[in-house]
Amino acid sequence: MATFTYQERFRTAKGVFDEFTQRHLFELQSREVFDELVSPIEVGKESNVFIAAKGKEKVIVKIYRVQNCDFKRMYDYIRKDPRYEHLRKHRREIIFAWVQREYANLLRAQEAGVATPVPIAWRNHILVESLIGDKDPAPQLKDAPPAVPEKFFGEVVENMRKLYQKGLIHGDLSAFNILNWKEKPYLIDFSQSTLTKTPNWEELLFRDVKNMVRFFLKLGVKTSKEELLESIRKV
To answer: Out of 44, 101, 146, 174, which residue is the most buried by the measure of CB atoms under 10 Å away?
Structure first.
């Protein structure tokens, strides 16, 4: 049964719950996507992330702030994606497409066997996905270096290769967007991910590669951008 207890707890959280957001949160609750929001993880300029209860389990609810989002920056990214070539330059239309694309990217990554949160639902500016972790979210890689960097790096590379074989580039891969859960990497935040059919896909892939090589070299992993690219492209 849908409840509104979260509204009182978070009503003043920097304007998160305007009437439009409340209406769509209630719709998701009515569809039993989640029961209620429990606690905030991150309150940012463009989006707010919450832990929500779903029975005895926890899920993640990401709410984009429609009035605060830099929709022009979003448009610059998404307009190059062939899936959205007919998208008009309207604030809400762009933000809703951005969320839908993140959901679709997560589905594609899951189909490829990549370790990511499971996409559960989306509605306009709200995305719901599974929680990676136990009671609390798993830590970001930047805050939880792996015990065996070489093994962890190898699993990251395999996930990147699976994405590439599925025709998808993460596009924003860094130690911020990888979680270390029980010494296994989980890739998160697929909002900037795009298809290998996109004109700038190589630029995004090279950026991911550069970020990974730089980070893991600091942990003592012997690698290079050339070696990583070769591994990703290996059939």
So the answer is: 101
| Domain annotation covers residue 135 | no
The answer as to whether 201 is a domain residue is yes
∠ CA 76-120-192, nearest 5°, is 20
Position 59 in a domain: yes
Is residue 189 annotated as a catalytic residue, yes or no?
A: yes
Q: What is the pLDDT of residues 109-157, one digit of tens each?
A: 999 999 999 999 999 999 999 999 998 899 999 999 999 999 999 999 9
Has this prediction a pTM greater than 0.85?
yes
**Active-site residue identified among 35, 76, 136, 189:** 189
Please list, residue by residue across 135-174, b when 16 or more beta carbons sit within 10 angstroms of its beta carbon and e when fewer do.
eebbeebeeeebeebeebbeebbbbbbbbbebebbbbbbb
Question: Would residue 81 show up in a list of annotated catalytic residues for this protein?
Answer: no
Provide the domain count of the chain.
Answer: 2
Do 117 and 156 share a domain, yes or no? Answer: no
